[in-house]
């Protein structure tokens, strides 16, 4: 998915902001944030305290309170992030980005709805590798430093299950885990086939 940037538009008054890992982007109904560098997770909390990840967004993506009906709604930086604030009167510039936002959200929903948690996790890792990964000799490096808890919140399972599955994937040679919560997704993966 190609990243779209507002930087090429001369008429935009660009106001860049930087946020540290774990910072929360300020939420407003009259502005959006376009991500220039880094990764942001949008999330909400259910009544029982369960954290629900609504999406993981990266360079070129647009996030903001106005794009969700979830309440509460939060935008948490998964990495150090640089963003551009886009006020309401400049939203006409982001039509292409909003279409990509919807497409990415649908991809994300598909990952979450696999009946088998191991397939969901593997699909999530593949998606993260495509969106945020960088090619290394062994495969695709996912350098987001996601905790097992954060991954479990994304796919709707427990931290213990994610830890067990990552251990299984590592034993099967599908992934290699490096220090500081980095994962290398191996080039060769098993072919998943389920008959209906």
UniProtKB/TrEMBL annotation:
Domain HTH crp-type: 115-188
Keyword DNA-binding: yes
InterPro entries, alphabetized: cNMP-bd_dom, cNMP-bd_dom_sf, HTH_CRP, RmlC-like_jellyroll, WH-like_DNA-bd_sf, WH_DNA-bd_sf
GO biological process annotation, one example: regulation of DNA-templated transcription
UniProtKB keywords: DNA-binding, Transcription, Transcription regulation
Transmembrane segments: none
SMART domains recorded: HTH_CRP (SM00419)
Molecular functions per Gene Ontology: DNA binding
Keyword Transcription regulation: yes
Gene3D superfamilies: Jelly Rolls, Winged helix-like DNA-binding domain superfamily/Winged helix DNA-binding domain
Superkingdom assignment: Bacteria
Name of the protein this chain belongs to: cAMP-binding protein
Organism: Allocoleopsis franciscana PCC 7113
